[in-house]
Amino acid sequence: MTHEETNALAVLDQAQQRKGRMIFLLLAIFFTVPLLVVVAMIKFDWRPTGKSYGELIQPPVSIAHTTHWVSDRQQALPAFWQDKWNIALIARECDAPCMQRLYDMRQIYVSLYKDMIRVQRVLITQQADTSAIRARYPDLLIINGEPEQVAALGSMLSGGGQNTLDAHRVYFIDPLGNVMMQYGPELEAKWIRKDLMKLLKASWAG
Predict the structure, then answer these.
(1) Residues 17-48 pLDDT 10s
(2) Under a CB-based contact definition with an 8 Å cutoff, are residues 84 and 206 in contact?
(3) At what angle do helices 189-202 and 96-110 cross, to 10 degrees?
(4) Rounded-to-integer distance, Cα 36 and Cα 43, Å
(5) Chain-centre distance of CA 180, in angstroms?
(6) Residues 6+ apart with CB under 8 A from 178
(7) Considering only CA atoms, which of 153, 96, 157 is closest in space to residue 126?
(8) Which residues pair with 180 in a beta bridge?
(9) What are phi and psi of 10, to 5 degrees?
(10) Residue 170: beta bridge partners?
(11) Under DSSP, is residue 117 helix (H, G, I), strand (E, B) or coil?
(12) What are the φ/ψ torsions at residue 87 (nearest 5 degrees)?
């Protein structure tokens, strides 16, 4: 082997060594940086917010087996609350604030696009004549049975702890019939929508 050939091999060998070191360094960074980030998160108690805007109902209240609620003079099926996500508003009488919330719920619903089929909107009220509401929102499901039935259902939604009929709260009920989140009348619709989008994205149900 000539001197020139020996030098060429030496140069090639050095290049391969540099390449090997570079690969090793990249692998070290790839595997150790995530570990260092996790260690730093634990050390400094930093947690991604993952914030929800509603009040979590804990433990969830199941209304899956509430049967035969009268829905606008028709018997509701036992599976009324199941198969879809439910956005439910409860109001003793659907006055102006109630109508505004129904409008908010419709806007949220329409904004879901392809996920609209996974959600149904429900109004629970003691108001006997709902013809004006139905005319404005023909796809809205309305539960307006006997006042005692509506009051009992409202009590279940809140876990029995508040005057639900006058609170104008919105509830999320999952496709298994569990009441899981509630929202006060002061909360803007965009935040309710944001929570709903998170649930739909994370859930296979409905």
Answers:
(1) 888 888 888 887 777 766 676 666 656 655 55
(2) yes
(3) 40
(4) 10
(5) 10
(6) 60, 61, 62, 63, 64
(7) 153
(8) none
(9) -65, -40
(10) 89, 183
(11) helix
(12) -105, 110
Distance from chain centroid for Cα 136? 26
Q: Which two tokens stand for residue 35?
A: 């570990």
pLDDT of 114 above 70: yes
Q: Residue 133 in contact with residue 94, Cβ under 8 Å? A: yes
- What Å distances lie between residue 49 and 113, 127, 175, CA to CA? 27, 40, 26
Q: What whole-number distance in Å separates Cα of residue 19 and Cα of residue 172?
A: 57
Residue 162: Cβ-neighbour burial (10 angstroms; 0-12, 13-18, 19+): middle
Neighbours of 90 (CB within 10 A): 26
- Highest-scoring range by mean pLDDT, 45-54, 74-83, 151-160: 151-160
For 45-64, the pLDDT digits (tens) are: 555 556 788 888 888 888 88
Listed in sequence order, the DSSP H helices in the chain are 3-43, 96-110, 131-136, 147-157, 189-202
Cα of 112 vs its chain's centroid, Å: 12
Report d(CA 22, CA 135) in Å as an integer: 70
- The pair of structure tokens assigned to 129 is 């004549």
Residue for token digits 């999952």? 174
Q: What are phi and psi of 115, to 5 degrees?
A: -90, 5
**Distance separating alpha carbons of residues 99 and 133, to the nearest angstrom:** 8
